[in-house]
Specification:
globular; 381 residues; mainly alpha; single chain
C-alpha cells in the first residue's frame, strides 16, 4: 500500500503539472502567432533528440536504478523550468521555449521508461492491471482538471507562470518517489544485458510485435489530431474556450475507460478493435463544435482502453531484466511516429484546412484495414 500511494502520488503530481504546461504552451503559441505550422514545427523539433535516445533508453534504465532515474529526471526537469521561467516571464522567446520543451522531452524519455518498468519491482503481478488502471485515471483526471483550471487563469495571469508551476510539481514528484521501496530486483551483474534484447524479444513475440506496430500507426495519426484541435477550435471556429472544453471531454472519455475495463476480458487481444473505434471517433470530427466534442470524447475513451490493456500485457509477459528495454522500444516507436505524423499532417492541413481531422480519420481507417490483414496473415503463419 505504501508503494502504491507514493508511486501514484508522484506520477500524479508530474501528470498534473505537465498537463497544465502543455495546454498553456499550445494556447500561448496559437494565440500569439495564429499558426498551427509553428506549433507543429516546435513539436517536431522537440521529438528529434528523443528518437535517438529511445533506441537505448530502455537498455540504460535496465542497467541503472529505476527509482534513481525517476528522481534525477524530475529534478533536472524542475531546474530547467525554473531557469526558463526567468527568461520567459516578460516575453515569449521561441528559442528559449524550444530549448525548454526539448529538455523536458529528453528527461521524459528516461522517466517514462523507468516509471512504467518499475511497476514490476514495486508490485505483485496481480496488482499490475489495477495499478495501470489507477495510473490512467489519475493521468486523465489531471488532463480533465488542467484545461478547466488553466483555461480561465491563463486569461488573467502570464502564461509563463505555468512554467514555474510545472517546475515546482517536478520537485514535489521527486520527493514522493524518494519514498518508494523496491521489493524485488534483478541482479544485473548475473545477467548479460544486450542493447538489442528488447528488439529481439518483440520480434520473436508476434502478438507484442503486432501491438507495437498498431501503436506506431496510432501515434502517427493521433499526432496530427492533437496539432489540429487547437487550430480548429481557436482559429477556424473562433472559440477560445472550445479548446479547453475539448481537452476536458477527451479526459472524461479516457477516465471513463478504466472503470469499464472490468467488463472486458483482459487476456483477449482488443488492440485492433480499440484502434478501429478510435479512427471512427476521429472521422466524426467535422469542423462543428458538437461533432468535435463527440469525436474527441470517443478518442479519449478508446485510446485509454488500448493503453491500459497493452501495457498490462507487456508487463505480465516480459522478464524483469528485459522490461525496461521492451518499454523503451515501445516509446521509441511512438517517438518516431509522432514527429513524422505532426510534420505530415501539418503539411496536409494546407490542402484540407478545417477538414484535416476528417481526412486523418479516413486515412487511419484504411491503414487499420491493412493492419487487420497483416495481423491475420502473421498469426496464421
Amino acid at each position: 500500500m505504501r508503494n502504491k500511494i507514493f508511486y501514484l502520488a508522484g506520477i500524479g503530481t508530474t501528470f498534473f503539472g505537465t498537463s497544465i504546461f502543455n495546454f498553456v504552451i499550445n494556447w500561448w503559441l496559437i494565440k500569439e502567432t495564429g499558426s498551427p505550422e509553428l506549433l507543429g514545427l516546435i513539436t517536431t523539433i522537440s521529438f528529434f533528440p528523443t528518437i535517438f535516445l529511445n533506441v537505448f533508453s530502455g537498455y540504460l534504465v535496465d542497467k541503472w536504478n529505476k527509482k534513481k532515474v525517476m528522481i534525477i529526471t524530475d529534478l533536472i526537469s524542475g531546474l530547467t523550468c525554473l531557469v526558463a521561467f526567468i527568461f520567459l516571464k516578460d516575453t515569449l522567446s521561441i528559442i528559449i521555449l524550444i530549448t525548454l520543451i526539448v529538455t523536458l522531452r529528453v528527461t521524459y524519455t528516461f522517466f517514462s521508461v523507468a516509471s512504467k518498468s518499475i511497476i514490476t519491482l514495486l508490485f505483485s503481478k496481480d496488482d499490475f492491471l489495477n495499478v495501470n488502471k489507477t495510473q490512467s485515471v489519475i493521468k486523465q483526471a489531471a488532463e480533465l482538471i488542467s484545461p478547466l483550471l488553466a483555461g480561465g487563469i491563463v486569461l488573467i495571469i502570464s502564461p509563463s507562470f505555468f512554467i514555474l508551476f510545472n517546475g515546482i510539481s517536478f520537485f514535489i514528484s521527486a520527493f514522493l518517489e524518494l519514498q518508494l521501496k523496491i521489493k524485488n530486483n534483478v541482479s544485473i551483474s548475473k545477467n548479460k544485458q544486450k542493447l538489442l534484447d528488447g528488439y529481439i524479444y518483440i520480434y520473436q513475440n508476434k502478438k507484442i510485435f503486432i501491438s507495437i506496430l498498431s501503436a506506431l500507426v496510432a501515434n502517427f495519426f493521433l499526432a496530427g489530431v492533437m496539432i489540429m484541435i487547437p487550430y480548429i477550435s481557436i482559429e477556424i471556429l473562433g472559440q477560445d474556450y472550445l479548446y479547453s472544453i475539448l481537452m476536458t471531454l477527451e479526459a472524461i472519455g479516457a477516465i471513463t475507460a478504466p472503470f469499464l475495463m472490468k467488463y472486458i476480458d483482459r487476456d483477449k487481444n482488443n488492440f485492433m478493435i480499440y484502434l478501429f473505434l478510435t479512427a471512427i471517433g476521429i472521422f466524426t470530427c467535422f469542423p462543428n463544435q458538437y461533432l468535435l466534442m463527440i469525436g474527441v470524447f470517443l478518442c479519449g475513451f478508446f485510446v485509454s482502453a488500448f493503453n491500459i490493456s497493452f501495457f498490462t500485457y507487456v508487463q505480465l509477459n516480459t522478464k524483469e531484466e528485459n522490461i525496461g528495454k521492451v518499454t523503451g522500444v515501445i516509446y521509441s516507436s511512438a517517438v518516431i511516429a509522432m514527429p513524422i505524423g505532426t510534420a505530415f499532417f501539418t503539411f496536409l492541413s494546407k490542402l484540407t484546412n478545417q477538414y484535416t481531422i476528417v481526412a486523418i480519420g479516413s486515412i487511419f481507417l484504411i491503414f487499420i484495414g491493412l493492419l487487420f490483414l497483416f495481423r491475420r496473415n502473421m498469426l496464421e503463419n
